[in-house]
Amino acid sequence: MIKTATGAATRLVIRQPDDWHVHLRDGAMLSTVVNETARQFARAIVMPNLIPPVTTVAAAEAYRSRIQAALAPGLAFTPLMTAYLTDTIEPGEIERGFGSGVFTAAKLYPAHATTNAAQGVTDIERIYPVLEVMQRLGMPLLVHGEVVDHHVDVFDREAVFIERVLTKLLAAFPALRVVLEHITTEEAVAFVEAAGPNLGATITPHHLVINRNAMFEGGIRPHLYCLPVAKRERHRLALRRAATSGNPKFFLGTDSAPHAVGEKESDCGCAGIFNAPVALETYAAVFEEEGALERLEAFAAEHGPRFYGLPLNTGAIVLERTPRRAPSTMVVANTRIIPFQANATLAWTFRGRSIGGY
Ligand code: DOR
Ligand code: ZN
Question: Which residues carry this modification: N6-carboxylysine (predicted)?
Fold first, then answer.
């Protein structure tokens, strides 16, 4: 870290990070968005909620090839593939996919919880045979932690999931490695902190920056709508404390989830925030604001691989404390996507991979 005479950091060289939760989409959208992730991150856990969802080893291999084909020439990036769990997925398919190195993890979407989750799991007990196999293999289970019960207030769905589903799941499979994805509440932070070492959590840039008021500031803001939805200020502050605490159970996962502008600005707008164009810069600003810049590297580049049992990256990236205007829009085929922080001035600028290495 290079500092000015007043002690403020001006340049950061950190181990190259990974993104432990991203939606890269497919087709024309994939070719536009994948390089936004690949220019910053060495690896990413790629979400399987395509249409149709990635439920087989063959589908994951084919999707991985499409991702690799969409990468800009010379950009080194490893997509880590995930299986989409359904009520009927065969334990043998999961075992074969993990054993052959195609599946790194499997994703649990409660049915109808979010975008393309219609084929998700209707009752956790239906996938107990799969979880048994995953526990034995040491294969991580990635969880979208929200109940879908319409009697439960949308802002309480994560906390109720923890109470009703996650507690039971962890008790039934004490050796299963579980990541509670994109946590949004004080309750999730406390639960993860109190649980054993097999439970980790990812934290997105947007949940560190916005609270639920941001969705209604001066009018409805569809580009700030995601699931789990942003919560009250006290929850955002709890997430900032967790992310910057140095606790290895918390790590970087952007949940970057692009949707075409027409899908967001609609009478029934999709959930998802496209933050890949500003991800590292946003995390750097949060860590600086919290007086924890020296802990950014561990959150972004060490806690995740250690949880997954993967090697740390050996390359490095450079961030500079130079203001940069975030892009206002991104053109995709015949439409556009509006990224997180569109047009805002970011305090940090991502300068790319460090030539001199780490
Ligand atoms: O906001 C979200 N968008 N949350 C999810 O869980 C899915 C994602 C998407 O795929 O658009
Ligand atoms: Zn997601």
Answer: 107
